Amino acid sequence: MSNRLSPKPPVNPIVMGKIGSAYGIRGWLRVFSSTEDAESIFNYQPWFIQSKSGWQLVEIDSWKYHNQDLIIKVKGVDDRDAANLLTNGEIVVDSSQLPELDEGDYYWKDLIGCRVVTVTGYELGKIVDMMETGSNDVMVVKANLKDAFGVKERLVPFLTEQVVKRVDLSAQTIEVDWDPGF
């Protein structure tokens, strides 16, 4: 029994990737990172995965590239059977591990659920998802039930200045210059 404090389970969990299948017989595992640069996932520690008994800490001994795959060696996981127990686990960190963003940059998780309102005050709906296109991010806005234009969903580009005029995360509102009929 060690005296050092073990990291606390995440209070505001955010998924950073997923643990893939076992690799080899010595307990290595593939990792799928959802960070912009795959290996940035290692900048966010500690990792947790949700197990039947709650949060499980995943301590990484080492990692490396194998062909195109990222593979990790987890502390205390020394054979394929032990590795298989972690397979398909979502890699979760506490969002406090994420760096502070520059002004005008936002995490998608903070935008989802925000109301989107035009500069003229028309309520377009709520952001239910974000999509990445080659050139810019796009807000997937689920329209209100009684939308005057009969639209169920709008795709609004997240272009600061041209389209997005104001983001108020405390009020969960994003003001946009956008034609509600579009």
From TrEMBL:
One of its GO terms (cellular component) is ribosome. It holds the Pfam family PRC_RimM. Residues 108-181 form the Ribosome maturation factor RimM PRC barrel domain. Its main location: cytoplasm. It comes from the Bacteria. Residues 15-96 form the RimM N-terminal domain. GO terms for biological process: ribosomal small subunit biogenesis; rRNA processing. One of its GO terms (molecular function) is ribosome binding. This is Ribosome maturation factor RimM. It comes from Samsonia erythrinae. The gene is rimM.
